[in-house]
Amino acid sequence: MSNPAGTTVRWTYAFVDRPRALLGPARAFWTAVTDTRLSEPRGGEGEFVTLLPEGADACVKVQGVEAGPGGAHLDFAVEDVPAFVDSALRLGADTVAEHDGWTVLRSPAGQLFCAVPWHGESVRPPVVAGSRLDQVSLDIGPGSYDAEVAFWSALLPDWASLAGALPEFHVLKPPPGLPIRVLLQRLGEERPASAHLDLACADIDATRERHERLGATVVSHGKHWTVLRDPAGGVHCLTGRDPETGGLPSRA
């Protein structure tokens, strides 16, 4: 099964969503982590910036949000935005806002994502200091989890839909060349859907030390990941995955 013409995802963006009052620290931290420079601000209040890598296409952006602590979301770049939106709506998404050429949507569990035009992006940024920001984790309550896995798997039929290394994880692996994967994580309690960023790390401890030098603090440790809080208050995970393939060493 494949997407209708024009709706195949041609590029993906991971958004770092942080409170507008903390955009300065967020931009400084994430440009350092990804070895990028800032674009000119966009939006009515300069709330959007793109993190520009050298010699490659951008795949990370930072957005200032008016309310709440922020988090993360995905943008899917396609050739036919209205057709992609129609597909998402048929599968159970809702339209949140329509803009000039792009649309904000909400998944059945409440996770925001955007459909945006593809502008020819094709060159994935390189690994930086042994790590790569390559995954958005959607954190879903147990009551919505199975339906959410079904929604994303149907919306992205050209992606591999795989059981994760642990029962509470499900991976959506994009076709070769796309820079951002999707992980669905089943939470242990019911709460609103949210999302965070994951980095694949050749050496979690070395990357953790680098992030701490840049102002992050450790929140917790898991089986093969470490949770950090960035200087703008948002959490992200350092995971023991291959930065080139995105997979765990035993199942890259």
Brief account:
This protein has 4 helices and 16 strands.
Summarize the topology.
Layout: E1 11-19, H1 23-34, E2 37-38, E3 48-52, E4 60-65, E5 71-78, H2 81-90, E6 94-98, E7 103-106, E8 112-117, E9 131-140, H3 142-155, E10 160-163, E11 169-173, E12 181-186, E13 194-201, H4 204-213, E14 217-221, E15 225-229, E16 235-239
Overall spatial form: globular
* Widest sheet, order of strands: 2-3-4-1-5-8-7-6
Largest sheet: 8 strands, mixed
- Rounded mean pLDDT is 95
Structural class from helices and strands? alpha+beta
Strand content: 35-45%
Count the beta strands: 16
What's the multimeric state?
A: single chain
Order of helices and strands: EHEEEEHEEEEHEEEEHEEE
The radius of gyration is: 17 Å
- Percent helix, as a range, is 10-25%
Poorly predicted regions are none
Question: Helical stretch count?
Answer: 4
Head-to-tail CA distance between termini: 24 Å
What does this structure look like?
- The protein is an alpha+beta fold and 252 residues long.
- The chain is built from four helices and 16 strands.
- The strands form two sheets. It has an eight-stranded mixed β-sheet with strand order 2-3-4-1-5-8-7-6, covered by helices on one side. Strands 10-11-12-9-13-16-15-14 form an eight-stranded mixed β-sheet.
